[in-house]
Specification:
alpha/beta
């Protein structure tokens, strides 16, 4: 039985239930979801996507319930992932229209997505209906369900089937896979047998076929996902599109005098006064790379490329490195092996969201040598801040959205990156042209416009009514 202590304040649920906004049910089952996400195992890009979609939906006039598996303490914070949490603290004016319900099963511990079973999700479904009855969450008040990843898709199918049995209504359900078993299996085709067994690809692909068969439509987040869906036995009823968006209210061009937090950060990192930093920013072409410190991000390649530039005297490189990363030492070794590192500023302390947004605005060019990206959020944020882009061929936002409006490096070769960086220094008109094009394109990829477009496409395809 669901205890009263899990339900929270009754007035929150009454206000939510009485709101005349249409109700959207988002399901992000694995990982540790929260209004403010702490990245941990199985918790990352998908969770940020769901929160951004939820925020956009509230801006568009909807109310949102997010379902996430709970019943355990967060692996990083130690806080209980239990009960119902409203988003009032993160969105003061609209937070009352968005909430997370943590669904529990008999295992009161964190479970990796590869180890989740249908029994876990069946127990979560039962828990959902126990809570729903107590907070007046009825099937009739749900406009549509959008599930994220395969396990959430299975959970959505279970909940939808039970609502149909209890209420006699069939709720619209669209599935956003984010990744696919067939695609991931192809990326690991040379992996050892024991690694392959851990991913349990046969079960996952079977479940994905089931979700495709039972859902009203599938939302692709990239062309790669869209193409891979054609390889499944089940036929997609309606093909929809919603790549990750960008928060244009956070990432936008700023004047240099609007970036005081980032300037103070750079001053601290370089050991120079802020006047000197401002002079560097005004007189140099500023290259930026800011991302997780992981091997796949190839930060050392960018450092080597900067060192190999012919025009580095006219350039400044800003690059972040996490001191706690296992490759921190390797990157520092690359830095100290450079012929000239005076033009490099390394940021090796935690950077706040405010500082990140201002760093993008201070940069002229964003460079990413990443070898593996689901989308490329940092690159997209840089584009929204009016940066010209130099990118590897592995970033879908560049290859699918910016296309010819960025410089793409086809090989993992620092010399090739150096050549593109020299072009950006030598040809300011071309650099400004690329930055302006990237900016205009990214503005059309705001979370609000993409989410509104998804709803319209669902209405046009007949998945949703126009009422």
């Amino acid at each position: 039985m669901v205890g009263r202590e899990l339900l929270g304040k009754t007035e929150n649920h009454i206000g939510f239930a009485n709101s005349e906004r249409k109700h959207v049910l988002l399901i992000s089952n694995h990982g540790s979801h929260a209004p403010l996400i702490n990245v941990t195992t199985d918790t990352g890009g998908q969770n940020f996507y769901v929160n951004s979609e939820a925020e956009a939906l509230t801006k568009l006039g909807y109310k949102v319930t997010i379902l996430n598996r709970g019943g355990y303490n967060h692996p990083v914070t130690g806080q209980p992932q239990r009960g119902i949490i409203y988003y009032n603290k993160v969105w003061p004016s609209r937070g009352k229209f968005c909430r997370i319900i943590y669904l529990e099963d008999s295992r009161k511990e964190f479970i990796r997505k590869e180890e989740l079973t249908e029994r876990n999700m069946a127990e979560e479904t039962e828990f959902f209906f126990e809570i729903a009855e107590k907070i007046s969450l009825t099937g009739e008040d749900i406009y549509f369900i959008n599930s994220h990843y395969w396990d959430a898709g299975v959970l959505a199918c279970m909940i939808r089937k039970e609502i149909e049995a209890r209420k006699g209504i069939s709720l619209p359900h669209v599935w956003t896979p984010h990744s696919l078993g067939i695609l991931k299996r192809s990326n690991f085709e040379d992996a050892p047998k024991d690694i392959l067994e851990k991913f349990n690809f046969p079960l996952r692909v079977s479940q994905e076929n089931r979700i495709i068969e039972e859902s009203n439509g599938v939302v692709a987040t990239s062309n790669t996902i869209h193409r891979t869906l054609q390889e499944y036995g089940a036929k997609v009823k309606n093909s929809l599109w919603m790549p990750p968006g960008v928060k244009t209210e956070d990432f936008y061009p700023r004047r240099i005098d609007e970036c005081s937090s980032a300037i103070a950060l750079l001053s601290e990192a370089k050991g120079a006064d802020e006047t000197e930093i401002v002079n560097l920013l005004k007189t140099k072409v500023v290259f930026l790379e800011i991302s997780r410190t992981a091997r796949t991000k190839k930060k050392s390649v960018i450092l080597k490329a900067f060192d190999e530039m012919r025009n580095k005297d006219h350039a400044l490189l800003i690059l972040n490195v996490d001191r706690e990363s296992p490759i921190y030492g390797t990157i520092r070794k690359t830095l100290y092996g450079m012929k000239d590192r005076d033009g490099v500023i390394i940021l090796d302390r935690r950077i706040t969201d405010k500082e990140v947004a201002q760093l993008f605005a201070l940069a002229n060019v964003y460079v990413s040598a990443s070898m593996m990206e689901g989308w490329g959020m940092s690159v997209q944020q840089a584009a929204a801040s009016r940066c010209a882009i130099i990118s590897s061929k592995h970033i879908p936002f560049v290859t699918e959205i910016l296309e010819e409006n960025a410089l793409v490096v086809l090989k993992d070769d620092s010399r090739l990156y150096a050549e593109k960086m020299d072009i950006m220094v030598n040809e300011p008109n071309f650099r400004n042209f690329l930055a302006a094009k990237a900016y205009r394109i990214s503005r059309d990829n705001s979370w609000k416009s993409l989410t509104a477009g998804l709803v319209v496409d669902m209405q046009k395809s007949g998945i949703l009514s126009l009422e």
